[in-house]
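Cross-check.
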Amino acid sequence: MKHFLNSGMIGMAIAIALNLYTAVVLAKPSAIFFSTDWWAQWFPSYAIWFTFIIIGGTHWLKSRSSL
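Predicted model, tokenized:
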């Protein structure tokens, strides 16, 4: 289950980097954090990667406590 944590952290980093790039360099209105279009285009990505981080982190903490 460590793969969930690693995948989640890498995916979240990529999503944040792409969101910042499109907001700053490309100046897309949908990339502005918490705008109406942001919720439709970017929030699902953040929600998925955050879910992966929660699943992986929970399993990692559970495996540490059983040692």
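The chain has one domain: 2-65. The chain has a mean pLDDT of 90. Passed to J.P. for a second look.
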